[in-house]
Amino acid sequence: MQNYEPKLIDSSRMVADILTADICADQEKFNEMFSIALKEVYPLSMRAARIVELCVFKHIELIKSHSDELLHYIEISKIDGVRRSFLKILAELPIKLDETSQGRLVDIAFSNIENQKEAIAIRSFSIDILMKFIGSYPELTNELTYLLEQMVKDPSNGLRSKSKKILVKLKKKINLSLLPFGL
Questions:
Q1: Which domain holds residue 169?
Q2: Which residues 6+ apart lie within 8 Å of 93 measured at CB?
Q3: Which of 45, 57, 131, 157 has a CA between 20 and 30 Å from the CA of residue 86?
């Protein structure tokens, strides 16, 4: 056991890079940092979650045994930084989930998007997650389109812009699917 908690002294990139370099290639060290992220102690858990995120982006295999915990803590964590880091992992990396976990993730993502009190980054990563599922589950398109149309009125410039761009993509996809075969 490395006792990483005292090393999480601040949220600087320098500290994150040093700890990431130490942990990245070692599953046991990674598991310890992951368990700190799950403790629900602010800001310690948020800092640990960021290092977990940085490690997973370098070595995706580190997170394979933690996918259920990842989903559980996205649902229950009160710390936005933990949820944001975990959602970013699921939004940007090809994490394999079973069908039940995929359904949970889709529900979580829709819930995050609908909740206007949710942090902007959490809502944004939730949109990205749903876009990953649209190819396999086109039936999600209508509900996502509806939510994005509501987000075009969002006070956040970033969410408004993202919503508009994705709506254009979704509408093109819908129009292409309506074309008869052979055209």
A1: 98-183
A2: 56, 57, 60
A3: 157
